[in-house]
Amino acid sequence: MFKFKKEHHFTIYFIGLALLSIGMPLSVFLVSVSQLILIGNWIVEGDFKNKIAILKERKSILIFIGVFLVHVLWLISTEDMKYAYKDIRIKLPLIILPIIIGTSCRLTFKQIKSLLLIFTGAIILSSLISTSILLGFTSIKINDIREISIFISHIRFSLLINISIFSLAYFLLSSHINRSNTEKVIYTISLIWLIVFLFILQSLTGIITFITTGYFLLLYKVIKLKKVYYRICFSLILVSAPVIIYVYLINQWNEFYTIDSKNIAELPLKTKKGNPYFHDINNNSIENGHWICLYVNFEELREDWPKYSNISIDGEDKRDQKIINTLFRYLTSKNLPKDAEGLSKLSKEDIQLIENGVTNYLYKDYTSLNARIHQTIWEIDIYKKGASPSGSSLTQRIEFLKAAFGIIKKDFWLGIGTGDLKKAFENQYKSINTQLDKNHQLRAHNQFVTFIITFGILGLFVILFSLFYPIIKEKGYKNYFFMTFFCIALLSMLNEDTLETQAGVTFFAFFYCFFIWGKEDKQKNIK
């Protein structure tokens, strides 16, 4: 019977890691297949005596597996076992990858670099596919810029992009790496493109993660500078950066709330056609500083709208919003009256945008960061005025956390159990009589809060110990790649349930294990 040599198993192991790297931004199926390849190769390779010896030597691997074991142990207090088993299946990479990567042959820096470049190539390919969708080169139609990420969630994609950006930055700038001029050009172009695309994607989580991680890395470099003059200059630049961002956001906020006066005595009584205006002076909704419910004549809109569009005035736009509401907001954004005159001043492009569900002419540029910030401020504004937060990326998260903290109060110490998360949120939303519609009644969108709900404060402590002990034991804090990844992961957990989806768990487990246990350890003679 043919038997693979050690080097053959290593080749298959490397291919499995490469396929996993490619699959994360491009194919959920490939992610699953690659892990099956890694598992099969690890079992066929055998040599379990040595692998067990490695686990005994590197107890940090077993400590990390504690994250998975907490999920298993808390099955004891679970009622919904079907959901629990599904959750356990999603979390399998947290036990599979540390054991396989931790007990397999160590990778040289050259091999790690190759895998990261393969991963980055897949990221760039995925970004180019997304760009082709944005530019209309495919048959895929989008109503929101974030829909161009067709393989995985745009938020998960943005985290992977961040990994590539900071990896490329190291390969380009590190004094420890020899680079040809061709490599420098390729790294530079790739780096610039990925940063540009990250802002095109408009994932606020990804952008904030990029800025924050980059800021801390620069701060660390400045502290390490030997010349005091350079240290002072760069420190001043770094201190001024948050101030500039703060001033920019304040200006956006103030611009949003630069509002027309609402002098009742000066409001016109009739349209240009001589029909009476309706002015709802008690409605405080605004768009670009203009009042949405002033200068309204429903009859003229109903009569003239069919001249411009085949969609009924009582129908819905392509985002399933009432088209009359979209029309109101769009006309107001251009400071046009909600009557026949206002309709007549809309271009064919304006009508198409309204039909597509675009509520403000500023939002027609999918790639505009200003528009994304403006939209976020608008969502906050209507939420404060009592509107439903459903569909709003930011304000619905406030509702998620309200429900989450209500659940935590009931089971603070030990939590509700691995499988009861969905049911607990359903009951809590009913209890607080939330304004969120059924489709938007989601979980906490904060991984640490989710841990407390599920496992209580005691379970959270065990998980945090399992995550941080290996970093200290293996000196991961000295590893640029690991610390960059870990910063990205932790920041994502503040705004997402990163470990509650297959893509998120795989992202976290792979890079954690890859950077902590995958590299060569020159200080320990581990076979």
> What is the quaternary state of this protein?
single chain
Q: How many DSSP H or I helices?
A: 21
Mean pLDDT: 93
Give the N-to-C terminal Cα separation: 26 Å
Report the uncertain regions: 523-527
Biggest sheet statistics: 2 strands, antiparallel
Total number of beta strands = 2
Query: Class by helix and strand content?
Result: mainly alpha
Radius of gyration: 27 Å
The dominant shape is globular
Keyword list:
single chain, 527 residues, mainly alpha, 2 domains, two-stranded antiparallel ribbon, 21 helices, 2 strands, 63% helix, 1% strand, globular, disordered C terminus
What can you tell me about this protein's structure?
α2 crosses α6 (93-103) and α4 (59-73) packs antiparallel against α6. The chain is mainly α and 527 residues long. The radius of gyration is 27 Å and the shape is globular. The chain has helices at 6-26, 28-45, 48-57, 59-73, 81-90, 93-103, 109-134, 154-173, 181-201, 204-224, 228-256, 298-304, 323-333, 340-344, 348-355, 369-384, 395-410, 421-432, 447-473, 480-493, 502-516; strands at residues 286-287, 290-291. The chain folds into two domains: 6-239 and 436-516, no CATH class; 264-365, no CATH class. Helix content is 63%, strand content 1%.
